[in-house]
Design goal:
The complex is a heterodimer of chains A (about 110) and B (about 120). With about 110 residues, chain A is an all-beta fold. In chain A, about 0% of the residues lie in helices and about 50% in strands. Chain A has no helices and 12 strands. Helices cover about 0% and strands about 50% of the residues of chain B. Classes of the chains: A mainly beta (about 110), B mainly beta (about 120).
């Protein structure tokens, strides 16, 4: 079975502070991992993805994530957040088969305060 | 170019009525997915279409839910005899193919409210 756990449902931070959103996964097969962001009343937008190769992946808006196979984690980080980063963030897993369906975590609401 | 388009953006209906939700994928995308986003359950996979292959319906929660995709493009998700627990945001996504390394592009969703 596949599952994705986002350990924090809400993360409040002040503007220009660093942030880490945590994601752990379980899977019996190799996986692809994604982070999506959702702004209010909008769909999901891809931030970054890990398919293979370098374990440190960089995405849009200054975000990056590190794939750690031994710890089955894929934490999202940004060194300095802006108020515009306030949104809900979803970690997602794909089994790496041809099916392509995604298994999502419950989401983390990031709120950036001035 | 145009992204994934969903209509209506909001739908309010009475319990017991049938509803149809529409998704226009990005042109040329052969894979199409439906997900449901609700407060209690998070984001759940519903159904997946890939080209002319039989759809993967494994995520549909009951036989009141069905979906079709005509001509390999537009898809309609139908919910019959709606219940209050069907209230959620229904998201559609498409990708160039069904392979896992091709990220899914999401529409803005249809917010369904059952009274």
């Amino acid at each position: 079975a596949q599952s994705v756990t986002q350990l924090d449902s809400q993360v409040p931070v002040f503007e220009e502070a660093p942030v880490e959103l945590r994601c752990n996964y379980s899977s019996s097969v190799s996986v692809y991992l994604f982070w999506y962001v959702q702004y209010p009343n909008q769909g999901l937008q891809l931030l970054l993805k890990y398919l293979s190769g370098s374990t440190l992946v960089k995405g849009i808006n200054g975000f990056e994530a590190e794939f750690n196979k031994s710890q089955t984690s894929f934490h999202l980080r940004k060194p300095s957040v802006h108020i515009s980063d306030t949104a809900e963030y979803f970690c997602a897993l794909d089994r790496g088969s041809t099916l392509g369906r995604l298994y999502f975590g419950r989401g983390t609401q990031l709120t950036v305060w001035p | 170019g145009a992204g994934v388009s969903q209509s209506p953006s909001n739908k309010v209906t009475e319990k017991g009525k049938d509803v149809e939700l529409r998704c226009d994928p990005i042109s040329g995308h052969t894979a199409l997915y439906w997900y449901r986003q609700s407060l209690g359950q998070g984001l759940e996979f519903l159904i997946y279409f890939q080209g002319n292959s039989a759809p993967d319906k494994s995520g549909l929660p009951s036989d009141r839910f069905s979906a079709e995709r005509t001509g390999g493009s537009v898809s309609t998700l139908t919910i019959q005899r709606t219940q209050q627990e069907d209230s959620a945001v229904y998201l559609c996504a498409s990708s160039p193919g069904g392979a896992s390394n091709q990220p899914q592009h999401f529409g803005d969703g249809t917010r369904l409210s059952i009274l």
